[in-house]
Amino acid sequence: MNLNQVTVPSLNVAKSVAFYKTLGLKLIVFTHSKYTRFECPDGDATFSIHQVERLSDNSGIMVYFEEQNLDETVEYLINKGMEFNQLPTDRSWLWREAQLNDPDGNRIILYHAGKNRKNPPRRLA
Predict the structure, then answer these.
(1) Burial classification of residue 80, based on how many CB atoms lie within 10 Å of its CB (0-12 exposed, 13-18 middle, 19 or more buried)
(2) Which residue spans within 33-106 are E strands per DSSP?
(3) Looking at residue 101, what is its pLDDT?
(4) What mean pLDDT value characterizes the chain?
């Protein structure tokens, strides 16, 4: 099994498209203002947005994008006007993470984990 894509809700797909293009995702589907899909610049996963009439309360949606050059990317995005809730921070689970919200409040975590992404010291045998 392989993860194909993650889809997040949005009240304004066009506004979200601008946000995710700034993050570096490549727009590959935009057939109408209610749905769009991106390719991630690395790997084979896709990411999509669909329009909703109302966002659910406290959805808990968190989307993680791995970035090899996290600190440089965050600095670049700040210079593009993006606001971060958390600047790059080393976490106890051996990932380095920065956090921001997309226009609809979905939590976006840019991170670098290296080998610890799939093979952390606590991985089950």
Answers:
(1) exposed
(2) 35-39, 46-51, 62-66, 86-90, 96-101
(3) 95
(4) 92
Distances (CA, A) of 106 to 28, 48, 68, 101, 119: 21, 13, 22, 5, 27
Amino acid occupying residue 75: E
Band the pLDDT of 61: cuts 50, 70, 90: confident
Beta bridge partners of 64: 109
What's the rounded Cα separation, in Å, for the pair 112 and 66?
Answer: 5
Per-domain boundaries in the chain:
5-52+60-116
**The domain over range 5-52+60-116 is classified in CATH as 3.10.450.50:** no
Nearest to 111 by CA among 84, 103, 39: 84
